[in-house]
Amino acid sequence: MPSETARAEAVAERIAHPPQHWPLRSIQPEADGVSQQALIGRFKAQLARLGADVIEARSVAEIPAALAQYIATNVADDAAGLARIRMGSDAFLAALPWSSTSGLEIATGKAEATDVIGVSRAIAGVAETGTLVLVSGAENPVTLGYLPETHIVVLEASGIVASYEEAMQSVLVATGGRMPRTVNLITGASRTGDIGGKIVMGAHGPRRVAVVLWSA
What we know:
This protein has 5 helices and 12 strands. By secondary structure, the chain is an alpha/beta fold. The termini are far apart. Mean pLDDT is 87; it is low at 24-28.
């Protein structure tokens, strides 16, 4: 076993020179030759590998319509053709022009057992793994990503970063420098292979994850 001195030196070395993750870059991607478009492309490719869907929106105003179109195509509506979505008190989501889109009923608060679709907003996306980074609270209740079978996450394309380390910095910036009580890292829909080695979707959360990716 290494001596206490050797262990302390190894720790100090790792802190001073942390390992670099994909892609090798700093906080300023353009300066390192890695464009934001490259990060977005990597992120979308990872989402596809995970079986998650990407919903494109060219502006903030297009988000409700893009979301409604996705729901109409992929999620079964009720007999009246009305789809109810559940979201928290997130100010950004609340300010979207929902009234301009027909076919959606908006419910707010934490998810209930009867909810089919939950909508949350992510702080960041990690290109390295296709992971969504969400901060819990009344604005985006954790239950929205566990109870409904479909979880739709809204993310601004500029929020996509290379690694988890940068994502945590984004969280600190968004929360005024204070780490929130809970940060949820979501990498694809819920799945497990515990029983007989067979992959089962939705065992511990949503069967379907979709990301509304929008640009300013």
